[in-house]
């Protein structure tokens, strides 16, 4: 049996924040544990740990990084952590509206709840990644492990993370009737050749390499010349090369700017460590330019910058990265 494991968020998107944790870190931690336990029973494929499946679908490169063809996947499981108001608690699993049965998911959520979480059950919602997989004929589910902003939930998670991973594996093994006699298989990870500057610049525009000095450090560590990448970014965006005396998007210039990224996250503060806002938290005007209702403003939207801080711009709805704004 071929099983695909995906970890939510990452690649510049921290996901939910709470109690000193980032969702993107926790999803990878738990996915690592699940893969290590599950590969005794099935052939486990891992969507690249460093990538963000949601972003890749949005940018049309999901298939490029998928380690196995859609028609070869028997089941796909995406791991997330929940967040709300600090009081909500428990574990829940989502399947798409097209999914017929949910005995596997019911077994998983029951197993996790037995560890000490409130059981919020199996629910239906067409979240982008699992919907994309289901549209390709792949049975899939999205786990909201527990609430990252609930102190008790996170205490239980930290004390029982191995048990939670085993609970997930047990649900899959029991319901699919896997016997555990398969030879352990290491998770398959694609090893693409080093990308061109053109490809890296495209990823920078889509937010995969972070912002400011963090982006410079990551590009340098990966063997790329940040200046060359930035020049290519400017070329792709049609921007005029800037000299040291010219203002950039990270200057203190206020006024009207245009969004040049396909989806620009709005955050509660000036940095990637701040939580992304939801659609309902945006101003009425910003909601008109969030077609997917995911808290991201669409390309071409004009916004008014009131303040700059740490390379982020404050607009009426919150804070956005100045790397993806162009002065108009």
TrEMBL record:
Region (Disordered): 236-255
GO biological process: peptidoglycan catabolic process
Compositional bias segments (type: Polar residues): 242-254
GO molecular function terms noted in the UniProt entry: N-acetylmuramoyl-L-alanine amidase activity
Domain MurNAc-LAA: 71-173
Matching SMART domains: Ami_3, Cpl-7
First-tier enzyme category under EC: hydrolase
Protein name: N-acetylmuramoyl-L-alanine amidase LytC
């Amino acid at each position: 049996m071929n099983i695909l494991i995906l970890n939510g968020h990452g690649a510049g998107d921290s996901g939910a924040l709470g109690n000193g944790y980032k969702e993107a870190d926790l999803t990878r931690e738990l996915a690592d544990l699940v893969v290590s336990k599950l590969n005794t029973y099935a052939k486990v494929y891992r969507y690249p740990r460093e990538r963000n499946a949601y972003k890749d679908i949005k940018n049309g490169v999901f298939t490029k990084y998928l380690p196995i063809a859609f028609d070869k996947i028997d089941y796909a499981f995406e791991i997330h952590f929940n967040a709300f108001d600090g009081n909500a608690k428990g574990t829940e699993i989502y399947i798409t509206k097209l999914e017929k049965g949910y005995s596997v998911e019911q077994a998983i959520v029951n197993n996790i709840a037995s560890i000490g979480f409130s059981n919020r059950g199996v629910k239906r919602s067409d979240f982008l990644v699992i919907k994309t997989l289901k549209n390709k004929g792949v049975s899939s589910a999205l786990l909201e492990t527990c609430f990252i902003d609930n102190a008790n939930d996170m205490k239980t998670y930290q004390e029982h993370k191995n048990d939670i991973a085993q609970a997930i594996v047990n649900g899959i093994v029991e319901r699919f009737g896997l016997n555990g006699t398969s030879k352990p298989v290491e998770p398959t990870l694609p090893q693409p050749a080093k990308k061109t500057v053109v490809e890296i610049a495209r990823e920078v525009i889509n937010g995969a390499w972070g912002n400011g000095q963090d982006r410079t450090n990551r590009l340098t560590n990966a063997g790329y010349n940040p200046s060359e990448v930035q020049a290519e970014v400017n070329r792709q965006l049609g921007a005029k090369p800037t000299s040291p005396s010219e203002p950039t998007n990270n200057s203190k210039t206020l006024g009207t700017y245009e969004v040049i990224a396909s989806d620009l996250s709005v955050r509660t503060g000036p940095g990637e460590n701040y939580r992304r806002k939801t659609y309902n938290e945006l101003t009425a005007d910003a909601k008109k330019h969030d077609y997917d209702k995911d808290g991201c403003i669409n390309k071409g939207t004009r916004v008014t910058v009131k303040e700059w801080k740490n390379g982020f711009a404050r607009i009426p709805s919150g804070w956005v990265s100045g790397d993806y704004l162009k002065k108009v």
